[in-house]
Design brief:
The chain is built from 6 helices and 19 strands. The longest helix is centred in the N-terminal third of the chain and has 10 residues. The chain starts with a helix and ends with a helix.
């Protein structure tokens, strides 16, 4: 099972964008620095996501079907609207507004609740407190930065900038009533499916408000995530306290403690990082069974046998979208390719299927 952070990390809009606006000119480096210096730690907003990857709609179903848990792949299809509330690094709430139901992710310190009103089911996830002196207790690993918001998505793309990325400034505009600078990332690679990524940044706070990803050969964005409403005041604390409704089916789960937590005797042993955008071509980085080969936009992520999300086998629409290939099945979209081998291994990347097959053949 993939760790909670990585599960939510899988989750990646129609937007209220106005005409171009006049702002003092800034370089790409200055805009990136604005994002790094942003002091926004609390907010409430409406986020809209639109995915035109060519995947079939994947409706939420089953007990505890929520983003980042049972149906992460659902948020790579169609359009979704959500309310987002954040207060500091350890409190967040995400309300997915479905047509006939509502789903909630509520994170409060070391506790997380996932609730689906459609079947009145909830999953309670807890992170155990480490056994060490109080002054050395690290922050519980319940990452609100992984809640699907434009700033979380922008952070991942910015972290992957390397020599293979051209970074420029596009025309300023407005998003959610805010004037924004537009940062444009263009891969220099000829292998990736990505044509460009635009990140619109609030001119006053440095907060990313919209991210659009365009695929090669397509005029419209293949994926977009943006605020349509935004309030930078602190949300009501009651929003982060969750009690399951009467009659709800509740499943309790505990996140296993990481074996390499810091101890009073010294720092943990170094751990390989599986982060695209670092290293050189041909790099083979490993972390928790996940292997990353290549670098930057050409990276290929490999998961060990048994790591394929349940949707690949349990969802009829998605199963029909899988095409048979030598040694397994494949899912190809305008931005993402996934290869599921008969032996259970999984390869994925923002690259053509042929690159995944080459990476699998090399092992």
């Amino acid at each position: 099972m993939l760790p909670f952070a990585l599960a939510i990390a899988v989750v990646f809009g129609a937007v209220q964008a106005g005409a171009s606006v006049s702002l003092p000119p800034k370089s790409a480096e200055e805009i990136v620095a604005m994002i790094a210096r942003t002091e926004v730690r609390a907010l409430s907003g409406t986020v809209e996501q639109d995915a035109g990857l060519g995947l079939p709609e994947l409706p939420a179903s089953g007990q505890g079907a929520v983003p980042g848990a049972a149906s992460a792949l659902e948020f790579l299809t169609g359009s979704h609207t959500a309310r987002v509330y954040v207060d500091g690094p350890l409190k967040a709430r995400l309300q997915i507004l479905d047509q006939m139901a509502e789903r909630d992710v509520v994170i409060n310190g070391g506790d997380a609740w996932f609730y689906n009103s459609q079947d009145n089911s909830a999953t309670h996830l807890t992170v155990p407190a480490p056994e060490m002196p109080a002054q050395n207790i690290p922050t519980p690993e319940m990452p609100t930065q992984e809640i699907p918001t434009p700033e979380a998505m922008a952070g991942r793309f910015l972290a992957a900038i390397d020599a293979g990325t051209e970074v420029t400034v596009a025309e300023a505009s407005s998003v959610a009533g805010q004037s924004v600078y537009s940062l444009l990332l263009n891969p220099r690679s000829t292998e990736t499916l990505v044509d460009s990524v635009s990140i619109d940044v609030d001119s006053e706070t440095g907060l990313p408000l919209r991210v659009e990803v365009r695929a090669k050969g397509q005029a419209e964005p293949a994926y977009s995530l943006a605020y349509t409403q935004l309030d930078l005041s602190r949300p009501d604390p009651a929003l982060f306290a969750f009690t399951p409704p009467q009659g709800a089916t509740v499943t309790e789960k505990v996140v296993p403690a990481k074996p390499d937590r810091p101890t009073p005797d010294g720092p943990p042993a170094p751990e390989a990082q599986a982060t695209p955008g670092h290293g050189s071509p041909g790099d083979d980085s490993r972390s928790h069974g996940v292997t990353v080969t290549g670098h930057g936009w050409d990276s290929v992520i490999a998961l060990p046998a048994g790591s394929a999300p349940a949707e690949f086998t349990s969802n009829p629409q998605l199963s029909q979208a899988l095409q048979p290939v030598d040694g397994g099945r494949a899912l190809t979209t305008s931005l993402l390719s996934v290869l599921i081998l008969d032996d259970g291994r999984v390869y994925a990347g923002m690259v053509p299927l042929e690159r995944l097959q080459s990476a699998a053949a090399a092992r």
